[in-house]
Amino acid sequence: MPRGNLDKTKILEAAAALANEISVKKLSLKQLAQKLNIQPPSLYNHVQSLDHLRLDLAAYGWDQAGARIAEALIGVSGDEAIRRACSVFYEYAEENPGVFEAMAYYNRENRTAGGEPDRLTGILYRLCRARDIAETDAVHVLRIFRSYIEGFALLTRHGVFPADETARESFFYGVEFLIAGIRQLERGGAGLPMRGGTNDG
Asked: Quick one: CA dihedral 190, 192, 193, 199, positive or negative?
């Protein structure tokens, strides 16, 4: 690739492909330069360091996943919108294991406000708020959803669950549990065993 054609987008695309192939932890600037057919010093015109590249790769993944989910939800609402959002995210994590690793491990607390993870958070929050539940409950549900879909995908990525159809079935089984919980909240939370960290029963 001629040096004049090199830009941040092409670097991230190449880094994503390499991370998916060898894992983000094994990613190096030397390997990336080889993949781009350039000398390593040329990367420093666009990449500050390997750690910054991993952070950029995480942002790249969140942006891609968020865009896919937003597109998949056009014209869809209710329970099906939640199912579809979860499905698209899970499929993205399956198809992009190295990028998802970056998304999971480099989603740091000190990232700038309004960053890419907030796009997915915003989508899930709007899905929650579209239901007849209190805003405080929607925040809790949002956190549970993110913990579930990211955590399940991460455990599968690391071989805790088999990477086959049985794991996918378990994932969507869990999604239905979450949807059932939302329906319960829509009825005023009747039957929820614990609220505010205490058991009132």
From this structure: negative
